[in-house]
Hints:
The structure is a single chain. The chain is of the alpha+beta class and 131 residues long. Helix content is 30%, strand content 27%. The protein has a six-stranded mixed β-sheet with strand order 1-2-3-4-6-5, sandwiched between helices. Strand 5 (111-112) and strand 6 form a beta hairpin.
Amino acid sequence: MAYLRDIKWFRNYMMNTRRSNRFNRFGESLFVAIIDEEVIGIGGLNIDPYLDLIDVGRVRHLYVLPRHRSSGVGKKLLGMIIEEAKKYFRTLTLYTENPIADKLYRNIGFSRAEGIQKASHVLNLEGKEGM
């Protein structure tokens, strides 16, 4: 199946180029969006590697193929990441310089981060019910 090959490629990429980011620590997950056996999007959840706090998660590697953007795939992936993060973290951070991504994150409820190392956005997960 084509999508299994694509997932293996991504997992190998992550393990070989980012040894510290394997999505295998407590609370960490990797999500994959698949349509017709094709990987069209990915997004991950890590313990924030830039902060020395185990209750702060970080959105990592959120990416949707260009032809599937503006179709709700990124929003769905992000929603799944947030729901999973609520089980383990009190706060979620991320970093982006992309103005389109900034709009997505702010529409979901993220705020611009100030004073948080290597973070452009932050979301307080405490007291948040299903999104």
